[in-house]
């Protein structure tokens, strides 16, 4: 059981470039989440997916898009990266009926 | 805007003592409360969760919830150097059970 996996672990982009962060979970969880964590800040919710086929905006969605590809996978896309999107991105998942979320190892993104 | 407040620290505690971490939240309708531990460069790891007023114990950890005063705390007994980390308080309420996090308290256990 790998839990929640994320790729890549590190990425450096130039302003204006695009990329997709991948997340997968093998726990058969229904809900999946994308957070960002900036120095001195708590985690902030970007987007979430309550179930396969649904996605909704969180607290800081601007500049991002998401796709719930299937029950296992939830990707986060930056269409035109900006330096303000330099952050650590965490994916998380939760089982139906439980509120505890389990986190992946994170992707450290730098936008120059 | 739901808010979760924590003292950023650092909180320095001698080894073997009790570490006390506190958190307040603004949304009186919040239902579920979580403590995560995060080592530097790592992802958050769930330590405790509590849903009802009172205390909940798990090994060396005790979570305390007081909904009337809107605070939740985490006690760590017999603190060990390996407990040195940032502790994140999180509250359920942000859309489809997304969590609202505090900024975390940096705990240092001094040998």
What does this structure look like?
The complex is a heterodimer of chains A (112) and B (111). In chain A, strand 9 and strand 10 form a beta hairpin. Chain A is globular, with a radius of gyration of 13 Å. In chain A, strands 2, 4, 5, 6, 9, 10 and 11 form a seven-stranded mixed β-sheet that branches. Chain A has a four-stranded antiparallel β-sheet with strand order 1-3-8-7, with no helix packed on it. Chain A has strands at 4-7, 10-13, 19-25, 31-37, 43-49, 56-57, 64-68, 74-78, 87-94, 102-103, 107-111. Chain A is an all-beta fold. Helix content of chain A is 0%, strand content 50%. The N and C termini of chain A lie far apart (36 Å). Chain A is built from no helices and eleven strands. The model of chain B has no long low-confidence stretch (mean pLDDT 93). Chain B is mostly beta strands and 111 residues long. Chain B is globular and about 40 Å long. Chain B contains no helices and eleven strands. In chain B, a hairpin with a 6-residue loop joins strand 4 and strand 5. Chain B has strands at 4-5, 11-14, 19-25, 33-38, 45-50, 54-58, 61-66, 71-76, 85-92, 99-101, 105-110. The chains are: A mainly beta (112), B mainly beta (111). Chains A and B meet through strand 4, strand 5, strand 6 and strand 10 of A and strand 5, strand 9 and strand 10 of B.
Task: Give the secondary structure arrangement, pairings included.
The complex is a heterodimer of chains A (112) and B (111).
Chain A: E1 4-7, E2 10-13, E3 19-25, E4 31-37, E5 43-49, E6 56-57, E7 64-68, E8 74-78, E9 87-94, E10 102-103, E11 107-111
Parallel strand pairs in A: 2-11
Antiparallel strand pairs in A: 1-3, 3-8, 4-5, 4-9, 5-6, 7-8, 9-10, 9-11
Chain B: E1 4-5, E2 11-14, E3 19-25, E4 33-38, E5 45-50, E6 54-58, E7 61-66, E8 71-76, E9 85-92, E10 99-101, E11 105-110
């Amino acid at each position: 059981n790998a839990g929640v996996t994320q790729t890549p672990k590190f990425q450096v982009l130039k302003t204006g470039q695009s990329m997709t962060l991948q997340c997968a979970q093998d726990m058969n969880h229904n809900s999946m989440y994308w957070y960002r964590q900036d120095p001195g800040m708590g985690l902030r919710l970007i987007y979430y997916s309550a179930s396969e086929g649904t996605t909704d905006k969180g607290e800081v969605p601007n500049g991002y898009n998401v796709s719930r590809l299937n029950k296992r996978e939830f990707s986060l896309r930056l269409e035109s990266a900006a330096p303000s999107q330099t952050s650590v991105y965490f994916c998380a998942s939760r089982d139906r009926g439980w509120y505890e979320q389990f986190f992946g190892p994170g992707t450290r993104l730098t936008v120059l | 805007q739901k808010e979760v407040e924590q003292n950023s620290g650092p909180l320095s505690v001698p080894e073997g003592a009790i570490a006390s971490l506190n958190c307040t939240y603004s949304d009186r309708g919040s239902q579920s409360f979580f403590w995560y531990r995060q080592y530097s460069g790592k992802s958050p790891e769930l330590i405790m969760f509590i849903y009802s007023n009172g205390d909940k114990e798990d090994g060396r950890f005790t979570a305390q919830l007081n909904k009337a005063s809107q605070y939740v705390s985490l006690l760590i007994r017999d603190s060990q150097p390996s407990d040195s980390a940032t502790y994140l308080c999180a509250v359920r309420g942000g859309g489809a059970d997304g969590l609202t996090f505090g900024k975390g308290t940096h705990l240092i256990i001094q040998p």
